[in-house]
Fold this protein.
Amino acid sequence: MSGLALNAASLRYDNGFTALNNVTAAFDSGSFTALVGPSGCGKSSLLRLLAGLEHPFIGSVTGLAQSDIGFVFQEPTLLAWRNVADNITLPLKIEGHNPSEIGGRLDEALALVGLTDFADALPRQLSGGMKMRVSLARALAKRPPVLLMDEPFAALDELTRFRLDDDLRAIWQQQKCTIIFVTHSVTEAAYLAERALVMQDGEIQTEITIDQNDRDSGFRSAPAFSAACNALSAALGHGMETKGEA
Ligand code: ADP
């Protein structure tokens, strides 16, 4: 797949509010893009539009079929009375895959998120970070070429979030999927992505490429990371809350 694109997309909600204004963006196959910007600038609207969850809109999405998409929301949205394995496999059962295929995908997804030993656990027995891992595994089990993530780690404590950031980078490198990740955090965008699209008032204002050197260890203290954070903060001006970030 050569990638997907959003072409001159505008989205107006029923109340007349224009959430996206003539947005054009291309996402190469296998790329990792962060969508960054202050609350209300249209990040989630853009993601939902790509996912086919916003109709009608002006413009078009090309290179993306609904079956290509895995979506991870901020809330894990797990079924409380079903165990981890059942939560992960339910969408596959609905899609009608055979049991051995489902079993294989379950094992693969559990291993990717580090929950192999928790297949039988119920959601209430898991920490917030583990619940989010289950949510991620449920999306990965579909083996989607494109993963759309809407502030998935925003509610987690800082250390848990750092671990999930690292694991997500590893999963991305292993699975070679295209990731579009919404965050309001400058540091999370700089750490995770290869490129950040900075949004403001329903438009993409700036594109920032994040240097991928020094990735092997200690990237949070690497010059490339500080440079990316500075570039992002400058692009966001004073509209961005960076204090108190997890
Ligand atoms: P972000 O993800 O950047 O915080 P959103 O895409 O969620 O922003 O929202 C962009 C703007 O559109 C906000 O001002 C929000 O209030 C408005 N909005 C979002 N959803 C709806 C809706 N269903 N109806 C009307 N306005 C909406």
